[in-house]
Specification:
alpha+beta, seven-stranded antiparallel β-sheet, 3 helices, 29% helix
Length: 150
Amino acid sequence: MKHVNKSVLLWYSQEEMYRLVTGIEDYPRFLPWCDHAEIVERHEDGVTARIGLAYAGVRQTFTTRNEHVPGESVIVRLVDGPFSLLDGTWAFRPLGRADGPALACKIEFDLRYAFASKALETVLSPVFDRVANTFVDSFVARAESVYGPR
């Protein structure tokens, strides 16, 4: 099993960052490895989403069930794909002002994953390891693009 744990402090609000992470249909616009992304089903507490990975000649699709706590967190669980395990959490913590809306936030990203077979691990691990380790950086860059530098 692989584990990625990253956190970053940003001059963007928790709501702004939450909107970027839950804006799944926009992923192909800014995640260089994502060739398609779609909402399969909407639920009262989140969505089921299908993501296409295309990187370094490797193409795979996986589906996750994402539980949303608006403005606070997104919990990601595997539905299907080349993984035996894919569990992740995005947490958005407000920083700053106690008397009004926070002007900054801390993002915490935690992802655990394992591949369904040794053959898949051999092919996909180098690709997905890179994707997983640059995920937070991609969303930080997207925030600057969408909301402007701060």
